[in-house]
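[09:14] KT: can someone run the structure on this one? pasting the chain below
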Amino acid sequence: MHPSAATAHARISRYSSTPMAVHSHATPSLTLVLNGRYEETIRSRSAWHGAGALLFYPPGEPHAQLFAPGGAVKLSLAPAAAMLEYLEERLPLAEAPVATAPELVRLGQRMAHELRVADTHSPAALEGLSWELVALFGRHAGHRSTQDTASVARARECIAAHLDQPLSIARLAALCGIHPARLARAFRRELGLGPGEYQRRLRLEQALRLVSETQAPLGEVALACGFCDQSHLSRAFKAAYGCAPTALRRCS
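[09:31] RB: done, structure tokens below
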């Protein structure tokens, strides 16, 4: 069943110790390890996952797996569209996030039981359990990390130090050693706005100070605050503060 359908679709898969070569999936999925261990290589990172690990696979994302002796048992869930929307609002899904918690194993075992029973009540039970699985994934994978907080602080320092040369999200993320999508997500969680919006706000606040407190030519103010020219500054200034820089100076 396609994950854009109204309901989620779950299945149990058993894997031997045979390595799985690099591959990808056409649709997004969640995979919960119920038993065994395997090493997942995805997005240039490798990590071992055991029982209780729940992984999100973005569509089209290449990944490979190396199973420990004895293989592994996994529950795969193709989330419904509403479940994906719920997660997209809370997690950087493009980064293939992972969550690990003991309660995920217990929940997965209940889902496996319903798949085995497969009576007339099982679809309803599985739908409720699938939503619980999605909620727990959002809760555990979405915890604010110390690294994210430190990255936002570092990004703010970089932005403040480069107001005259606005930084792209890619450049800013590279300076902070974090993926751009993760940095954007952390920014919104910490400050309520994205890096680009924060950057524009600081540039305008600096321009307001220079216009109000100095007699520097407006062309110089524009360049000092990362605007292309005086006209660019005037348009942005008027949109933010309701009047042009020249009008503000006349009123001062």
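[09:33] KT: thanks! The beta strands are 9-15, 20-23, 29-42, 45-49, 53-57, 63-78, 98-100.
[09:34] RB: yep, looked fine to me
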